[in-house]
Fold this sequence. Notes:
Oligomer: single chain
Helix content: 10-25%
Strand content: 25-35%
Low-confidence stretches: 43-47
Order of helices and strands: EEHHEEEEHEEEEEEHEEEEHE
Mean pLDDT: 92
Amino acid sequence: MRFKIEVDLQGVSLKLPLNYQEVIQGIIYHALPEEAANEAHRQEKGVRKMPLFTFSSLRGNYKVNREQRVIYFDTLYFYVSCLDDYLGFSLVTNLFKGITIFSHRFPCQITSLPDYQGGNWIELLSPVTVHKTELGTKKTIYFEPNTMEFTSAIYQNLKRKYQYYYGEEYEGPFSLSATPASVKKSIITYKGTNIRAYSGRFHLVASPEAMTLLYNIGLGEKNAQGFGMFRMEDSNE
């Protein structure tokens, strides 16, 4: 279930940190039902949880000050996608009341968007990331699109999500490739950690059920931190 959130800034030029993902994630957590938000926050060592939502990078008219590492928005909108309808309706109900950003309260206009309706060409609305941690050195290695490691990591991530959501092992088709000229690397700092992620145009093949799941919850890792949301290339989002 997916929505477009248009924030009425009421003439304010909104100042946000250049790495704003934690701010937006906090807004969404506050709009979730209390039980769901508490469950998402609860950490269990060695347990990977299913993300409840994902969201896009912020869009609109903006100016970036890289020296101060801030971004100024004159208009602002973004997309949110939820794992299921209950969460989606609860989220929308609360967001309709407005959102608070650094003590400023802003009204929102919310548009419901169609579910996955087929297709394989996707465009990232927020960059995708996958990585591994070396056992000995604990060094984090991020994978680049169009490499065997990247594709394998995305596939293993899909299998975990599919098993969790559908309760059975994924045995459908899978392939993923990026249009090289479209790929752009980003370094995003989240809670003090630098995350390497990639945006661009990809061709993604999976079963309709798997495509629907990825469309709703995102591609790759760290979806609830604002990574891996995509749109179908021929959509009107």
